Amino acid sequence: MHNAILQPIVVLIGWTLVMLAWAIATRLPAMRAAGVDLGRLVGTTAADADRALPKAVQWKAHNYNHLTEQPTLFYAVCTVIALTGTGNGVNAWIAWVYVALRIVHSLVQATVNRVQPRFILFLLSTLALVALTLHAAMAVFR
Fold this sequence. Notes:
single chain; Four Helix Bundle (Hemerythrin (Met), subunit A); elongated
């Protein structure tokens, strides 16, 4: 494949949408059970939902938010790598590692939400992102 690094980008975007669907599928019934009327809500914050809904329900929404934060850097750096024609081989492999770590991080956060394994997974995925960034810099500044 010409730019294999595009595949992990699409998979992580798909996974982010899966997490969004999971958050909605658990949050709406929990809101109904808590007596929250969406039609009457005005200007609420995430903290309001955290107070009103069970923690395990909120974990999915929190993870969805996380998937719209650091992964934006992943999308950008992978796009740079693809545009420089260096998106195959080791860069594609590192991108897949990043995506796998983020998916496992999501599953941990959305189910048991233990901080230590989440932190380790986040740290490892960040190291993969650093490696991709260095490779992108080498491709752009060579």
